[in-house]
Structure formats: structure tokens, C-alpha cells
Design goal:
Blueprint lengths: L6 E4 L9 H16 L3 E4 L13 H12 L22 H13 L3 E4 L3 H13 L22 H9 L5 E4 L6 E6 L3 E6 L7 E3 L7 H11 L4 E5 L6 H11 L7 E5 L2 E2 L11 H5 L8 E2 L6 E2 L9 H9 L14 H7 L10 E2 L2 H14 L2 H14 L6 H11 L8 H6 L11 H7 L4 H13 L6 H15 L3 H13 L7 H8 L1 H15 L4
Parallel strand pairs: 1-2, 8-9, 10-13
Antiparallel strand pairs: 3-4, 4-7, 5-6, 11-12
Helix pairs in contact: 1-10, 9-11, 12-13, 16-18, 16-20, 17-19, 18-20
The protein binds one RNA strand through helix 4, strand 4, strand 6, strand 7 and helix 6.
RNA sequence: GGUCGGUUCAUCUAAGGGUUAGGAUUCAAGAUUUUCAUUCUUGCCAUAGGGGUUCGAAUCCCCUACCGACUGCCA
């Protein structure tokens, strides 16, 4: 087992969009596979026909691709252990379920869902919980309680039945979880889980064990919500006689919502202003839209990076990692056990780190489409120059417009606060003089402009700050932005002069 | 309710019996930027509570509290 090839799987159910917690699970599986030179597979767990959501599987695949977590095997990815969609493996599960019935590890049950619902309601009314298990199974309609002839008759009559696991009555099941250490369960508390449904499909429990075995999965890395069914899965491997080769288990902590209680859920994003899904998702039933990290302007590397640090750390102070670096530093031992609260502020910080590392060239290519959408056509070189100036004030590509729109369009209005603070008596006259000075400039570049300006200011004895801030208001509309003379240079002489004179006209005399 | 898991600054986390309990984010202050943002510096802020064990506990044990997951012919 120890020298076995590492093979891990990400096994989502296509019942909706992939949650960021799911992406993290995929990431940790991916990192583990890369770290150990193993295989990362994608398996679609679509055994519940009633919960099929159109587009969900495509969404999952597209999300993984966007993140760069490309499976080595999976539906559409090839691999020697396929098919990788459980609905396409339908035929193989029944035999395994029957094998368990034959060996006495399982039995057939004829109770209908309606009957079971009634038992549950009844128990609940009496303040107890109904459990289909050792204590109750003999009083229910199954191949254990019914005479063999009756069982024969029912099956012969085509009565639908499910196959349930026959949970041992009082057995301690202990497993060494790679993240949590030793965990022990007593089967007393467990029930006879359905393994094979009356609709001919296996449940998750049967399918995941059979498939993990058949696909030679060496390590199961999944969410904490699976911990309670771990003893069942362990027992299934035992029942099949697969204990020697069965995978090792690790259960990842949950991602909690930023404020309040509970795990992060799909509504939290809209309420708190951040995405919980990797990609934009349009709910095909309700038509509702859920924002995505991609559409919100996050870089996939940043998204992955922030996800990785949510529940894992390398034990050093390093926080920024490439995927490859994460893979080399990754280990399950360094995954924390407790749930982590997601912090949108830190997420923003991560994206900023990645944005700052990108060149102006790279960023400009992302900004051009934004400008284009606003019917602004400029050369790439101009965009590069602008990006260069304002990049450090941006966290997201989308910030470039807010931070730099004045490079592409004259201010439609002037910031009131700035005007009342800076547009004082005497200032307009000085601005007019500067306009005159600039109109005679021969070399329209930041450095010489600044020199001429400074010389003029000294000669006149004007206050630098006052005049510069006033000029800034005229050119950008407020007291923001990079170096004033760089702005002049990028705007060009004609545009600069035009903005100065419109401002003079619109703002009127100082007050 | 039961079972299982968890609990270090507001948040993500480090410290696997011996540190002034460290870093990051947020926040605040100062510097720089004749603007704003950035950047830099500094600061604020934590071992859930109670018992043990030990010369010594954030670390090991027990109890309590709180939080979470699960408790379906869902995954």
C-alpha cells in the first residue's frame, strides 16, 4: 500500500455550481497528486437522477480549467479507468450489491419511502428518532425479517426493493485520518444505509467505495461532511475483502462564512458582497445569477492561492505561491483541523499581490477590452503607459477604469469637496497664466513641463500646492491620481489645454 | 436529542512541554508622496472557562461552555 502509486480523485455531484469549498477540495487533491507524482482524477457522481441540474457538469469542468486544475483522467480527459461518470457505470454496481447480500453483509428491503417517512414522522412526534438499524430492522419489511418464501414472492412479483447494508451491532471502527489523527466510531450509533436504490442506481456510499477500489484510488481527500459516513465506508471495504488495498482517508475542515454562524453557503456572497463560486452561474430553474471570482476580476492564481491558505499553511511565512510551489510544499499533515472563516478583505489583498506582479503590458491587454466596451479606442501603447501610472492603485483589473478614466475622457464634473477646498480666489488667474505658459511649451514631456512650471511658480512667488491641486482638479476632476506632469504628458498638449480652459469656464472665479 | 469533529489577536494562522505567544489581513498613528492611493515605520489586539499531570502547559488528560458536520432509496 505504501509503495502504491498515488491516485486521488475529486468527485463532485453535478447538482449545481461548484462551490469555492469544492474548488479547495479539488485543489488539495491536485496538490497531493502533484506532490507525490501521482494522478488526479475527476469523477462525476451523478447517481441521483432527481437532482440532475443541466450545465452543472460543464460548469465543474470549466471551473477546474479556469483554475488550472486539469484532471489527468476524467470525463473528456481520457484515462484507463473509465468511464468516469457514475451514470455510465450503472451496470457494474448491482453485481457488487448482490455480492454483499450473498455474503450476508447486506439485505433487501421492501419498505417504501412513504412508509419510512411515516415511521420518521411518528418517531419525531414521540420525541425520538427513527433509525433503520439493528434495533428496528426485524420489525420492518426486509429479507431478514420476512420468511424466505415471502421474499421470493415479492421479488417475483416485481416489488421494488432497495439493498441495505447490515450494520454490525456493536463494533468499534477506528481509522487514522491523515489530518485528524485517530477517529473511532461505534456501529451502535449507525444505521443500515441504503447501498442500492430501488431505481437501479447505487447510492454514494456503494458507488464511491466500488469506484475508488476499481480506479485504484490511494487517498481519499474530501470534506468534513463525510466524516460521519467513514465507518460505513471502512466496513464496506472490509465486506468486499478490499482492506489491503483500500485508500487512506483525510477529511478537510469546512470554510465558514465571514460573519455569523455556519458554513459558507451560496447566498452569502450576494449578502456580503463577494463571490462564493468560481464562475458566474445562472440558475437554469430560477434564472438567478450568482457572481463568480472570474467575472469579479480575480486572477485564477490568486483565487487558488487564497483558497490554499484557507486551512493549510506551509509552516513558513510564505503566503504567495505558484501552483507548482504549492505542490512542492503541500502536505496533509499541515492542513488544520478547524473550520476557517473566509475573509473577503484578505482575498482582495491576494489578488492585489498578483496584479502588482504583472507587467503593464500584460495588464494593458486586459484593460483594452474594458475600454473597447466603452467605445474608447486608443493604442495599446497608450494603455500600457496609463496602466504603468495607475497600476499600484488597483487591486483588480476592473479598478483600472475607475482609477484612470480621466485619461480617456474629460471630467464631466468636478469633485465638490476638492473644489471648495482648492478653488480659492486668485487661483483661477494663476491657472490661466499656467495655461498660457503651457501653450508655449515646445517639448510636451513631464520633466520639462515640470521645470517650466517650477520656474514660473518661483518667479511669481505662488504657492506650489495650491496651484498644482487646482490644475489637478481641472484635468482629472478631483484631487487624485499620479504625478500631475505625467498626466499632462499622457493627455497631450491639446487635450490638456482644452481641459484647462473648460474648467476655467465651468468653475468660474474662486470663492 | 444522539454521534463525531473543532476551539490561539476582529480574521487567516505559527509555536508539535521551556519564546517578551511569531507572521499576515483589517484597523489606527507617523513618515514619504506639495494631491489621493501606494510604500515604509510604529501601534492596538489572542491561547474559551475550570480542574488536573509536570519544576514548567497554548501544547498532555478530564469536565463545562460554545461552534460545526452528520443523523435521506441526497451527495
Amino acid at each position: 500500500m505504501s509503495d502504491r502509486r498515488v491516485r486521488v480523485r475529486f468527485a463532485p455531484s453535478p447538482t449545481g455550481p461548484l462551490h469555492m469549498g469544492g474548488v479547495r477540495t479539488a485543489l488539495f487533491n491536485y496538490l497531493f497528486a502533484r506532490k507525490h507524482g501521482g494522478d488526479f482524477l475527476l469523477r462525476i457522481e451523478d447517481t441521483d437522477q432527481t437532482r440532475y441540474v443541466p450545465g452543472a457538469e460543464e460548469y465543474i469542468v470549466e471551473s477546474l480549467r479556469w483554475c488550472g486544475l486539469v484532471p489527468d483522467e476524467g470525463p473528456g480527459f481520457g484515462g484507463a479507468y473509465g468511464p468516469y461518470r457514475q451514470s455510465e457505470r450503472k451496470d457494474i454496481y448491482a453485481g457488487y450489491a448482490r455480492q454483499l447480500v450473498a455474503s450476508g453483509w447486506a439485505y433487501t428491503s421492501f419498505d417504501t419511502p412513504a412508509e419510512l417517512d411515516a415511521y420518521r414522522a411518528e418517531a419525531e412526534a414521540a420525541g425520538r428518532t427513527f433509525s433503520y438499524g439493528p434495533a428496528t430492522r426485524m420489525g420492518l419489511r426486509n429479507s431478514l425479517s420476512l420468511p424466505a418464501s415471502e421474499v421470493q414472492r415479492l421479488t417475483g412479483a416485481g416489488e421494488p426493493y432497495a439493498i441495505r447494508f447490515k450494520m454490525p451491532e456493536d463494533l468499534d471502527v477506528t481509522e487514522e485520518d491523515l489530518i485528524r489523527g485517530s477517529v473511532t466510531f461505534n456501529t451502535r450509533e449507525l444505521d443500515d444505509k441504503v447501498l442500492f436504490k430501488s431505481d437501479g442506481m447505487p447510492t454514494y456510499h456503494l458507488a464511491n467505495v466500488v469506484d475508488d477500489h476499481l480506479m485504484e484510488i490511494s487517498h481519499v481527500i474530501r470534506g468534513e461532511e463525510w466524516l460521519p459516513s467513514l465507518p460505513l465506508h471502512i466496513l464496506l471495504y472490509r465486506a468486499f475483502g478490499w482492506e489491503e488495498t483500500r485508500p487512506r482517508f483525510s477529511h478537510l475542515p469546512l470554510i465558514l462564512k465571514p460573519q455569523g454562524k455556519g458554513k459558507l453557503s451560496k447566498r452569502d456572497g450576494d449578502k456580503m458582497g463577494f463571490p462564493v463560486f468560481p464562475l458566474l452561474w445562472k440558475d437554469p430553474e430560477t434564472g438567478e445569477h450568482y457572481r463568480g471570482y472570474r467575472e469579479d476580476g480575480y486572477f485564477p492564481e490568486a483565487f487558488l492561492n487564497l483558497l490554499a491558505l484557507l486551512g493549510w499553511n506551509p509552516g513558513t511565512d510564505q503566503e504567495i505561491f505558484t501552483l507548482a510551489e504549492m505542490a512542492t510544499s503541500f502536505s496533509l499533515e499541515r492542513v488544520v483541523k478547524s473550520g476557517s472563516r473566509f475573509d473577503p478583505e484578505k482575498a482582495r489583498w491576494f489578488n492585489r499581490q498578483y496584479l502588482q506582479k504583472k507587467s503593464a503590458q500584460e495588464l494593458a491587454r486586459l484593460v483594452v477590452p474594458i475600454l473597447y466596451a466603452k467605445n474608447i479606442t486608443v493604442t495599446l501603447a497608450t494603455v500600457v503607459a496609463v496602466v504603468e501610472e495607475i497600476k499600484e492603485r488597483c487591486d483588480f483589473v476592473g479598478d483600472f477604469w475607475e482609477q484612470g478614466r480621466y485619461f480617456f475622457e474629460a471630467p464631466a464634473e468636478y469633485d465638490e469637496k476638492a473644489v471648495s477646498k482648492r478653488w480659492k480666489p486668485g487661483i483661477p488667474a494663476a491657472v490661466e497664466e499656467i495655461t498660457g505658459l503651457f501653450s508655449t511649451a515646445t517639448v510636451w514631456e513631464a520633466a520639462p513641463l515640470k521645470e517650466e512650471f517650477s520656474a514660473f511658480m518661483n518667479e511669481k512667488g505662488y504657492h506650489f500646492g495650491d496651484v498644482m491641486n487646482a490644475l489637478r482638479i481641472c484635468l482629472v476632476g478631483g484631487n487624485v491620481g499620479p504625478d500631475l506632469f505625467r498626466i499632462c504628458e499622457l493627455l497631450g498638449k491639446a487635450e490638456t489645454l482644452a481641459r484647462l480652459s473648460t474648467a476655467l469656464r465651468k468653475l468660474g472665479p474662486g470663492h
